[in-house]
């Protein structure tokens, strides 16, 4: 399954349904192939405190299943669809995610070492289409987006990590630290009953 080919049309269809595709992955569990989608409300379409619910996952699932049957009929014969909220440790996959969660703590793992380091934990600062700057242990580090393998919020470490000095100075519009954290819900395998 070619995720790079599949992602743009799925993103477009989810937007029509009022959702943003946060992350898409293909996994094998035993003999089952699963296409797992993490969704959120389109930014600006829901109040900031409204998290993805089970009903939202079911609505997205129902809207996608009908469309997938027409657009990618072979896919549904071999793959189960699973839709979930991004959860509190949500993936950060787009520049817009770094902007949205500026001032929050994240964990980043790179594909290759950057100054001898592949794992970072720092407060999100500035982000551009090429890189994100985080503050780790009082030091600002700029990480190119194209070498990031995984990136997630780290809300459970925020209270025990020293507060940033530089990131706060850079951003005066940092949202409440736990706003938009999300709640994990799942409407997986709804499509099997149809």
Keywords:
194 residues; alpha+beta; SH3 type barrels; 5-stranded antiparallel sheet; 3-stranded mixed sheet; 8 strands
- Quote the CATH topology of the largest domain: GMP Synthetase, Chain A, domain 3
Q: Tell me, what is the CATH class of the largest domain?
A: Alpha Beta
CATH architecture of the largest domain: 2-Layer Sandwich
* Cα distance spanning the termini: 22 Å
Determine the strand fraction and express it as a percent band: 25-35%
Query: Helix-strand pattern, N to C?
Result: HEEHHEHEEEEEH
Q: What's the pLDDT, averaged over the residues?
A: 84
Description of the molecule:
- The chain has 5 helices and 8 strands; from the N terminus they run H-E-E-H-H-E-H-E-E-E-E-E-H.
- Residues 171-194 have low confidence and may be disordered.
- It has 2 domains: 3-88 and 182-193, GMP Synthetase, Chain A, domain 3 (2-Layer Sandwich), CATH 3.30.300; 102-170, SH3 type barrels (Roll).
- The protein has a 5-stranded antiparallel β-sheet with strand order 7-6-5-4-8. Strands 1-2-3 form a 3-stranded mixed β-sheet.
- With 194 residues, the protein is of the alpha+beta class.
What is the compact description of this entry?
The protein is an alpha+beta fold and 194 residues long. It has helices at 3-16, 54-71, 73-78, 95-100, 166-170, and strands at residues 19-29, 32-41, 79-84, 105-114, 117-127, 131-136, 139-144, 148-153.
């Amino acid at each position: 399954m070619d995720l790079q080919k599949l992602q743009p049309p799925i993103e477009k269809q989810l937007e029509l349904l009022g959702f943003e595709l946060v992350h898409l992955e293909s996994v094998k569990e035993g003999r089952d192939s699963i296409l797992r989608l993490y969704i959120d409300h389109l930014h600006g379409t829901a109040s900031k405190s409204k998290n993805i619910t089970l009903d939202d996952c079911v609505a997205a699932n129902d809207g996608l299943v009908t469309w997938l049957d027409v657009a990618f009929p072979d896919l549904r014969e071999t793959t189960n669809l699973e839709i979930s909220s991004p959860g509190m440790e949500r993936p950060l996959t787009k520049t817009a995610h770094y902007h949205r969660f500026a001032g929050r703590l994240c964990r980043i793992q790179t594909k290759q070492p950057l100054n001898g380091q592949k794992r970072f934990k720092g407060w999100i600062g500035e982000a551009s289409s090429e890189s994100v700057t985080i503050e780790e242990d009082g030091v600002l580090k700029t990480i190119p987006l194209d070498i990031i393998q995984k990136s997630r919020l780290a809300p459970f470490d925020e209270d025990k990590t020293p507060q940033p000095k530089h990131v706060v100075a850079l951003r005066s519009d940092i949202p409440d630290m736990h706003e938009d954290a999300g709640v994990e819900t799942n409407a997986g395998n709804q499509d099997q009953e149809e």
